[in-house]
């Protein structure tokens, strides 16, 4: 059931934070499946960077849709913020974990794509 907003347009930060958490849970699930597939087959490790991008996009998409299904308006913004926070947290963690991590144009593209995938998911979720 869609929430009643009494004509007000506001962000639901709790839903956004829960959405980011759900996206990370989905990511962990897909990474475990990928690890099992790679362990039991002869897949090359060269697919890992591509798989990370696909898993991240699918996680943001599914979580963005789930987050915005009961939101009346601004689904694109709710979903976009889920994607933005998801990618932002990954980048911040990478900065601390990977010693050679450097800010580059690819980072900006990743953040932008995270927001765009989330916004698309939000549009889809509000429509459902």
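Q: What amino acid sequence fits the structure above?
A:
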């Amino acid at each position: 059931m869609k929430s009643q907003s009494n004509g007000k347009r506001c962000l639901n930060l709790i839903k956004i934070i829960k959405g980011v958490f759900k996206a990370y849970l989905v990511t962990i699930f897909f990474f475990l499946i990928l690890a099992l597939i790679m362990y039991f087959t002869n897949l090359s490790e060269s697919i890992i960077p591509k798989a990370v991008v696909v898993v991240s996009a699918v996680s943001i998409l599914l979580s963005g849709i789930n987050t915005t299904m009961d939101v009346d308006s601004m689904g694109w913004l709710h979903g976009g913020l889920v994607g933005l926070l998801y990618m932002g947290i990954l980048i911040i963690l990478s900065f601390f974990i990977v010693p050679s991590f450097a800010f580059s144009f690819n980072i900006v593209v990743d953040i932008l794509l995270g927001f765009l995938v989330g916004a698309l998911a939000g549009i889809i979720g509000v429509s459902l």
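Q: And what stands out in the fold?
A: Residues 14-127 form one domain.
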